[in-house]
Amino acid sequence: MYPIILLSFFGIVTLFLGFSKSKNILLPATLLFLVITLISNFIDWNQGPLLYFYDMFRVDNVTLAFSGIVLLSAFMIFAISGGFQDNPDSEPAEYYGLMLFSLVGAIMMIGFEHLIMLFIGVEILSVAMYVLTGSNKRNLRSNEAALKYFLMGAFATGIMLFGMTLIYGATGSFNLMQIQGFSSNIPAGSQPYILYAGFLLLLIGMLFKVSAAPFHFWTPDVYEGAPTIFTTFMSTIVKTAGFAALFRLLNTSFTGIYNFWWLVIAAIAVLTLLVGNIGATSQNSFKRMLAYSGISHAGYLLIALTALTKPSQNAIIFYSLAYSLSTISAFGVLMLVSKEKTFEGQPNERYEAFNGLAKQNPLLAFILAVSMLSLAGIPLTAGFWGKFFIFTSAADRGIIWITVIAVLMSTVGIYYYFRVIISSYLKEGDLIKIRVAPFYQVILVLATFLTILFGLAPGIFESFM
User: Fold this and answer.
1) Could you tell me where the beta strands, DSSP code E, fall in 111-241?
2) For the chain, how many structural domains are there in total?
3) Which domain holds residue 283?
4) Contact of 133 with 225, CB cutoff 8 Å
């Protein structure tokens, strides 16, 4: 609860700081706000389930773990956003304020105990993302991305609300525990069809938010059109909050109809893996590749939801952390490289922009390589253990066939992730020494260090959970 209150207050303070003559105070102040919020997040650790806001918001260790990942990711993303201050057309106070408010929505999605709280969280997060996606008003690509995201997001929200309405009509409640009691107390197969229909519509709305196929069509265009810093925010924080919400929804309310929905999610997971991995192989833009990569990683996380065993909980949390760290590193390097090189008058976001990166910028090449290895699931990185835990949870449930498909798709992922490493280390390119701000460099090194640390000693994370 503390992060929601603090972020709401700090978001307003940030907007007022925008009236100051100098923009230089905005970034340090916002980072301080996030540090305070991150510390407050763990005040209730191991205090047991706590309910707030008339039992509509639940705080437990799972809520705090997901919130911690979101806040840590936000701190790193804010820390590499210093370019706002160098752009005379940017409005950093508004950007930072919207990002802080969107974090309120993300945390509401993580800890909701009532479907109305879920809806409020989704809308707070989504509306902020619509605005930030189109924040580069002079760029037609950004405007197009914002329009696509808004229109498709509005339809998804309507479908989700319709699903909530049907669930209320079937159970008489929006409370997760009461919905669980209704679905569990009625013999399997005897639940009203309106409950199944409502669940499917609600699931469609949520799957749109996490870029699962076949609700993924917006993702490549929006990721490519949005300013890269907001794409980073979208691909990490929005995805983490979305899967936290899906896990809470399925694990708390709909275990009584597990035999109905597990095969639906399994089919969507397989389709998502196929679309994400095969789509990524044909991309020439690194940014669009990361968009399809995000789709494929949604497929891996859906496998853990399909299994829904006790290890699934820790697997989703660990995978979300590993994916967020690697994605922030990858986008962080992309922002530096694309700013130095252009293609058709725009920042160069294609693979060839990384040609020869290792010769003049060995640290950036190493950071990029580690992030690609982790996303590919190569051993000694956090991404390897993230996939291992997810595959193990599926095997424990006895869903071996989906694990086999996921392993095969992981081998496809090696191809397009290694294209970036090959460009950096084996191809010739313009030898440009890229200047990196010290704090920016510290953040990228920290993300890389944590990726390697959790790859070498994943038990550190398990010990806290």
Assistant:
1) none
2) 1
3) 2-464
4) yes
